[in-house]
From TrEMBL:
Organism: Hemibagrus wyckioides
Chain intervals for the UniProt region annotation (Disordered): 30-50, 75-108
UniProt family annotation: Belongs to the class IV-like SAM-binding methyltransferase superfamily. RNA methyltransferase TrmH family.
PANTHER family: RRNA METHYLTRANSFERASE 3, RRNA METHYLTRANSFERASE 3, MITOCHONDRIAL
Domain MRM3-like substrate binding: 144-186
UniProt protein name: RNA 2-O ribose methyltransferase substrate binding domain-containing protein
Length: 450
């Protein structure tokens, strides 16, 4: 019986084995003249990836050469069967090699474990922290290192309420650690798309050694910029033409309460000099209770920067908490003698490091010490009389270092006054946060009535 051969894509295969081989020249010529078949793009892409196509083409070229009349006539039955068998074996080996490469790309056990730690609930995709998780250790390190937070430009926020206010104001979250999934769903979920969500037992993570209350949520944010945040009037109300200037406030709790008073009074903004404590310190954030996300707070300003930040025609007043009596209030409008900076409330009585000497006016006292520079002369008035205008700024100084000479000069240049808060005799001065609350809410009353 003749062996039936078929040429597919220039590859010859034997359909039936036979002892005697007879191939007519006419059949071979028709096979050779047949145009090569073309494969589909999908098959080509698969074969190119696996390397099968190249092997088939090489085998086809060899067998095509073997199918010429002179070669076929010279080949025996055994040689022809061996050539086809070798081609089939080589094709099978290539396919097995491709399968081995595909199966060798399976994920590692560590990756499988990490993928299994992810969970989905609604639109939230979170992961459960594993024992000795690096994310938790990085959180603890970040919380305990102020230098690291400043270098990386990050802040830490505690509690669902504070985190929610930060998200609504447009702050950028990086990682949110939570313990209860239901509490996480109370946040603005649509603003957590770019954040990593990690479920962890926060009671087992002691981040703040001075914090006794347990927190249900801690988030890492990029350090916000006031110019990039949103303060909607619908949420925060329309701001009043009233600005608070904090000069050398270095106590975190005191500054946080002062910022909270400014937000409650509806101030336009808060400006802080370079001598103030970091406004994003955890204690400041905790005491402010979300004031950072209700009005613009601009830290680390020089006095020249403060003047450019204030609107035109702003009048700057300074707070006075010296223990004035009712008699002093009655004489508040009378002319006063020149006072030193330390004679004002929350002002520094320390000597100025840079003394000014004049060639014609240089004098020395009996012990040979140069005469100290005196502060600007400001008119004093009770805090409850009218002192607001088109735009007004109030300067509050720290209890330790007090107001700087630059603050007093700015008040003198803008025709500001010394706002006196009277107290009974024998009582120490109010702290900066209490004085700020008294003056800011009085300013709010005057502006609303006008």
């Amino acid at each position: 019986m003749a062996t039936l051969m078929r040429c597919t894509r220039s590859v010859c295969t034997i359909l039936e084995p036979a002892l005697n081989l007879r191939i007519s020249n006419r059949y071979v010529r028709s096979v050779r003249r047949r145009p090569p078949a073309t494969s589909s793009p999908e098959e080509d892409s698969i074969n190119l990836k696996s390397g099968v196509k190249n092997e088939q083409i090489e085998g086809a070229e060899r067998l095509e050469h073997a199918c010429c009349p002179s070669t076929l006539e010279s080949m025996s039955d055994g040689n022809l069967r061996d050539a086809c068998q070798k081609h089939r074996d080589k094709t099978r080996k290539v396919s097995e090699s491709h399968r081995e490469k595909t199966t060798s790309k399976r994920p590692s056990p560590a990756l499988i474990s990490k993928l299994q730690s992810f969970h989905q609930m609604g639109s939230l995709r979170y992961e459960k922290a594993q024992p000795d998780d690096k994310k938790v250790s990085r959180l603890i390190h970040l919380a305990r290192s102020k230098k690291l937070r400043e270098q990386q430009g990050k802040i830490l926020l505690e509690g669902r309420r504070l985190i929610s206010e930060a998200l609504e104001a447009g702050a950028s979250p990086l990682t949110v650690f939570f313990s209860v999934l239901e509490r996480l769903q109370e946040l603005p979920v649509n603003k957590l798309a770019q954040a990593s969500l990690v479920k962890v037992k926060l009671e087992d993570v002691r981040i703040w050694p001075d914090l006794k209350a347990e927190v249900d949520m801690i988030a890492v944010f990029k350090r916000p910029e006031a110019s990039q945040m949103l303060f909607s009037e619908e949420k925060c109300g329309k701001p009043l033409p009233l600005t608070l200037i904090c000069d050398n406030l270095r106590d975190p709790g005191n500054l946080g309460v002062t910022l909270r008073c400014a937000a409650a009074a509806g101030c336009h903004s808060v400006l802080l000099t370079t001598g103030c404590v970091d406004v994003w310190e955890p204690k400041v954030l905790r005491a402010a209770l979300g004031a950072h996300f209700r009005l613009p707070i601009i830290p680390s300003l020089s006095w020249s920067d403060i003047q450019t930040r204030l609107p035109p025609n702003t009048t700057v007043h300074v707070a006075d908490n010296s223990t004035g009596s009712e008699t002093e209030l009655e004489l508040a409008g009378a002319p006063q003698q020149a006072k030193k900076a330390g004679d004002y409330g929350w002002t520094s009585s320390r000597n100025i490091s840079r003394k000014t000497y004049y060639e014609d006016e240089y004098e020395e006292d009996e012990v040979g010490v140069a005469r100290q520079e005196t502060g600007p002369v400001l008119e004093t008035q009770p805090y409850h009389t009218s002192w607001t205008g088109s735009h007004t700024a109030v300067v509050i100084g720290g209890e330790t270092h007090g107001l700087s000479q630059e603050a007093l000069r700015l008040a003198e240049e803008t025709r500001g006054r010394r706002l006196l808060i009277p107290m009974v005799r024998g009582v120490d001065s109010l702290n900066a946060a209490m004085a700020a609350s008294v003056l800011l809410f009085e300013g709010r009353r005057q502006l609303r009535e006008s």
